[in-house]
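Hi C.,

You asked whether I'd gotten around to modeling the 160-residue construct. I have! Everything is below, sequence then structure, no commentary in between.
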Amino acid sequence: MPKVRAINEIEPQMKKLTDAELRAKTDEFRQRIQERLSRVGGNEAPPPTGDVAPESEVEDDFDRIKRQEKVQYDALQEVLNEILVEAFAVVREAGWRVLKMRHFDVQLIGGMVLHSGTISEMKTGEGKNAGRHPSGLPERPQRARRARGHGQRLPGQTRL
């Protein structure tokens, strides 16, 4: 998988980042997404006329809105796919720093499949359960609660 290989290749760069720099990546991703969506635009409503529009104009407006929504959705998917490799590398590093658990390559693949809008299934032993020791035994409840409590976020980081 080329994307998994790319994630693995930039892992050393992510390790060099300070916690603050790693946290800042989330803001950088948000900015990149906002910039792309702002270029698409199209959020303007047609000017009010005060009259009731004929049915054909309502249908035209509906079609125009649907086309614009598709353009915005496509732009969002495009930018998400552009940041996917770096974002997954950031999450992997955050998982290591916060939980001392590194995502396996197969978990990255599973995440990419879910991102693409399809369903994935992982076989037993492929690392689905982050609340278990490598031995397969359940972890102490405190660590499991801590992991669920702030997921893959670094201290001070909010959700995207």
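If it helps when you're writing up: The mean pLDDT is 80.

Thanks,
B.
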